[in-house]
Amino acid sequence: MVVNGKPQTFQALGYGIDLRSEGYELHLNGDRRSNDPFREQGIAVILPYKKTGKNIIQKFLYHQYIDNVSFDGDFIKGEFECDVIINRNSCFYATFSGKLNDGNQEVMITDGIISYQYDDAFDN
Length: 124
Description:
mainly beta, 10-stranded antiparallel β-sheet, 69% strand
């Protein structure tokens, strides 16, 4: 994805499925894997498991800590677009973009892609 005009690549950190009152929920986590404690970045994505389509991601959180400045934001309602193309027990693929806000700062994300093949497929 491109964050404020700078291309960045995140690595999968974890994934899982939780049972909620509305059904099964998929959560994916990623980070930049930096060894520098003054440069952290991570994402968390939550959406219905196996559901595909436009604008179905329920929550997309972005965290960064760069040069002693922290940002923890969620996409601004109405300023987030996504298209979940594949969401099955063995892999996930989606595109996304939008503007995030934490009350003090804004971050613009464009050209976001999540493409992930799970190490072990979930049960059907």
